[in-house]
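User: Can you help me understand a structure? I only have the sequence.
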Amino acid sequence: MNTKKLVLAILAGFVVGAGFTALQIPSPVPPNFAGLIGIVGIYLGYVVVERLDIGFDLPGKLGLR
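Assistant: Let's start by predicting it. Here is the structure, written out as tokens:
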């Protein structure tokens, strides 16, 4: 993993989160730790299916491509 990209992503997230708070806009992220872990799980599932190449082309099977 590229450390520079990771740091920039965290910094960008911090700036956006601070902006939401400063403008008193509700945050679009889950308000608790369980929600955050759910998002991590979605990402991990995506990565595993992509790496194992076990996907299914649903749009293709439905004739949408």
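Now, to help you interpret it: The chain has two domains: 1-30, 32-65. The chain has a mean pLDDT of 88. Let me know which part you'd like to focus on.
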